[in-house]
Amino acid sequence: MITTTSKTRPSFTEFVILVSLMMALTALSIDAMLPALAQIGSDLQVQNANDRQLVISMIFVGLAFGQLFFGPLSDSTGRKPAIYAGLVLFMFGSLMSMFAVNFPMMLLGRLLQGVGVSAPRAVTLALVRDQFAGRGMARVMSFVMTVFILVPMLAPSMGQAILSFSSWRAIFGSFLLLATIALVWFALRQPETLAPENRAPFTGRRIINTAQEIMKNRLALGYTVTAGLVSGAFIGYLNSAQQIFQEQYELGTLFPIYFGVIASSIGLASLLNSRLVMQLGMRLLVRGSLLIIFGLSVVALGIAPFFAGQPPFWVFMAYLMLSFFCVGVLFGNLNALAMEPLGHIAGIGAAVVGALSTLISVLLGTLIGQSYNGTILPLVIGLGVLAGASVMVVRWAEAD
């Protein structure tokens, strides 16, 4: 139940919409940019087409380090100051990218966006925990997760729509507008939820001690690394999706539609996961999903050479939808399994697990994207290798 006694606190519906807006900024700032990568590369004179992918990768770098900072900061200063700082930093990064005159300036702006948006991403979960418990919290998170599923499906279409009447700079303008609305709304309507007596000092030692504890716990470390491997495969897909769909398969402005269809398979898996977990358990679902992705990749690698690395589009779509359905199942379970032994340090533990897995994923995802060679082979090999490696890591983690 809500613990604050403020008369100005938002209603349940208003709170859910506000939290959803802040959480949606992450997916919007990633996926809405995909249709604009070619135009950005041309305008900022990027010579190597694969380097355009860094516009996506840099925001994940920022997320990796930002959540390690803002999560513990919110435990020390309260939730509102941490979210204020993150949103302002995100807005500054949006402005820098919007007015970028060269590619390094663009990438610095994206890095700042990633660091900034990590605050609402990490701290809003704590904000919900502060005010709700049990079924109330589950009710809030179910609404938030619905938005979290829908946004990646719709964000590329939003970016494409803006490009139809303006340039890529206007997409950053839309991020700035949404962040401003979220900041003002949050400041005016949401009371502080962390009482001063419940705050913990912000020290680097807490982060270091938590990281050491995770490193010593086989289950926590194994599932954290596996989450990083799986997310790395997904980031590799995000990095190369625009080139594969728009350039290799020549889909042009239809790219956001097909991207949304594939995103829907992840969303469907997320919705079904709660039922599947009750019937099969998290560990069986993780092992099974990894083996399916590995098997699908082996089949795809067997087929692709007969088509010079570009199999019929429907075959490629079927492969991606089945693979990313499994990825959706994995997203729903790996973080929970990694956090299972860390209940006594849940807040700081989630920040360290998230930071470590994101850092692993951005390195591997960038490697997959930078290997793009005009065929689907680097992506398929990346998915297969990381799924196979994940199977081995999970077996190590679960060994007696």
Entry keywords:
single chain; 400 residues; mainly alpha; Growth Hormone, Chain: A; 0% strand; globular; disordered N terminus
Kindly describe this structure.
Helix 1 (12-31) packs antiparallel against helix 7 (168-189). The chain is 80% helix and 0% strand. The protein is an all-alpha fold. It has helices at residues 12-31, 37-43, 54-77, 79-98, 103-131, 134-163, 168-189, 204-216, 218-248, 255-280, 282-303, 313-339, 346-370, 377-398. The model is unreliable at 1-7 (pLDDT under 50). The chain is globular and about 65 Å long. The longest helix is centred in the middle third of the chain and has 31 residues, at 218-248. It is built from 14 helices and no strands. The protein folds into two domains: 10-191, Growth Hormone, Chain: A (Up-down Bundle), CATH 1.20.1250; 203-400, Growth Hormone, Chain: A, CATH 1.20.1250.20.
Task: Outline the secondary-structure elements.
Layout: H1 12-31, H2 37-43, H3 54-77, H4 79-98, H5 103-131, H6 134-163, H7 168-189, H8 204-216, H9 218-248, H10 255-280, H11 282-303, H12 313-339, H13 346-370, H14 377-398
N to C succession of SSEs: HHHHHHHHHHHHHH
Largest sheet: none
Q: What do we call the CATH topology of the largest domain? A: Growth Hormone, Chain: A
Model regions low in confidence, pLDDT < 50 over at least 5 residues: 1-7
Overall helicity: over 70%
What is the CATH domain class of the largest domain? Mainly Alpha
DSSP E strands, number:
0
Structural classification:
mainly alpha
- Note the total helix count: 14
